[in-house]
Design a protein that fits this description.
By secondary structure, the protein is an all-alpha fold. 77% of the residues lie in helices and 0% in strands. Helix 12 packs across helix 16. The mean pLDDT is 82.
Length: 414
């Protein structure tokens, strides 16, 4: 079986899997709380894996690998920023948020902030700020289009629409249940991809990482420098610190906070954190693929295609697993983001602001029904907007993602 046939079979099986899980999740959704935080009924291992799946997006498997391909070893600061900065942020944020939510019963970050500080204005303001995450979703969809069009030789726009439709279907059907259940399989695939890509360097290069460093340093010494002045982000120690700070704040992103709020027993938070630590380390190893591809072929026109070209070097079945893991990464993140934005509109703005303050004067029971109906419509609305944003993507997909990350991270730090 050739690579293209394997890829079609792999993507088809994955599509069937996520939609099936969406149907399973739909049977458990009776109201807005079920859709948003699964009624706080999930275990620490599954949520730790789901946290990783929502955290590691196409930015990791395409964008950050592209950074390593374009600017060399300085991109490994991203590894430290995420594994160190984000883990510290998770530890700092998680316990306090989940403990307090045993009484607050918030469904999202804006809802939690509004209840904590007794401010409907703050809840509404943060809900609006969260909408900047559409850039983040668009980045995921653009990455999906880039990957599928490159591997399957199909039109970029067609590929983007296909990824969008599948993501919308399973998040609309299953809410957080579907998000978490699919994320378990998605994270396992992503961990597999990271480990396999890292170890492959010792297969393609007899001298391992040392040989890779020698090859790319011969082309440009800056490619093995700790700081690369040509890098978009890692051109000084000050900017490196800024990236670490942003990744610290990233742990408080709305789509990640929902995983913390969904934990059944706050005493299990330590297990959830350790699950994240193991998963994050394995997933981040994929960045080395950019360095390996740079050593093999430095002439790619599009750095984001580095991992696409690299997976072609493997056996078709392994290449398919790696490609599906990248799709899993971007779809799990897009799913979490769509879920959060939908909750912000339906719960935080509509019920907790407009209805609560009698700006829209309707009975609470009717408001709940309308809000639940919104969960069936808004993911598609957001999806259409994000597809339109992907029609003319930037050179680096990671740039679009960082617009979304930085906007909400800035609000989190504030």
């Amino acid at each position: 079986m050739d690579l293209k046939t394997c890829l079609y079979v792999g993507f088809a099986l994955y599509t069937i899997f996520v939609i099936y899980v969406g149907f399973i999740g739909s049977k458990k959704i009776k109201g807005l709380s079920d859709f948003a935080v699964a009624s706080e009924s999930m275990g620490p291992i599954s949520l730790g894996l789901a946290f990783a799946a929502s955290f590691f997006s196409a930015a990791t498997f395409l964008g950050y690998v592209g950074y390593a391909y374009a600017w060399g070893a300085s991109a490994l600061w991203i590894f430290l920023a995420i594994f160190g900065g984000s883990t510290l942020g998770f530890i700092v944020i998680a316990k306090g948020v989940r403990d307090s939510n045993t009484k607050i019963k918030a469904l999202s970050l804006p809802d939690w902030l509004g209840e904590m500080y007794k401010s409907d204005f703050l809840r509404a303001l943060v809900s609006i700020i969260v909408m900047i995450q559409m850039f983040y979703v668009a980045g995921q969809l653009s990455a999906g289009g880039t990957l599928l069009s490159g591997l399957l030789d199909i039109d970029y726009s067609t590929a983007v629409i296909a990824v969008t439709v599948v993501t919308i279907v399973y998040v609309t059907l299953g809410g957080l249940f579907a998000d978490v259940y699919t994320s378990i399989g998605q994270t396992c695939l992503m961990m597999f991809a990271g480990v396999i890509v890292f170890l492959s360097g010792f297969f393609f290069f007899k001298g391992g990482i040392t040989e890779v460093s020698t090859i790319i340093a011969a082309r440009d010494p800056l490619l093995t420098a700790v700081i690369n002045p040509k890098s978009l982000h890692m051109y000084s120690y000050a900017t490196v610190f800024g990236v670490i700070l942003i990744e610290f704040a990233f742990s408080g992103q709305p789509q990640l906070l929902t995983k913390i709020l969904a934990l059944k027993d706050p005493k299990d938070m330590k297990k959830m954190i350790w699950t994240w630590i193991v998963a994050s380390f394995c997933c981040m190893l994929v960045i080395f693929g950019g360095l390996y591809m740079l050593a093999l072929n430095p002439d790619l026109q599009q750095p984001d295609y580095a991992v696409v070209e690299y997976v072609r070097a493997f056996h078709p079945i392994i290449s398919t697993l790696l490609a599906v893991s990248i799709v899993a990464a971007l779809m799990s993140t897009a799913c979490g983001l769509l879920l959060v934005m939908t909750t912000c509109i339906a719960n935080d703005l509509f019920i907790k602001t407009l209805v609560k303050r009698k700006i829209i004067n309707i009975p609470q029971e009717k408001a709940q029904r309308i809000a639940f109906m919104m969960t069936k419509i808004l993911p598609a609305v957001f999806g259409i907007i994000c597809v339109l944003m992907t029609l003319h993507p930037p050179q680096f997909m990671g740039v679009m993602v960082w617009i979304g990350i930085s906007g909400v991270a800035s609000a989190t730090l504030a």
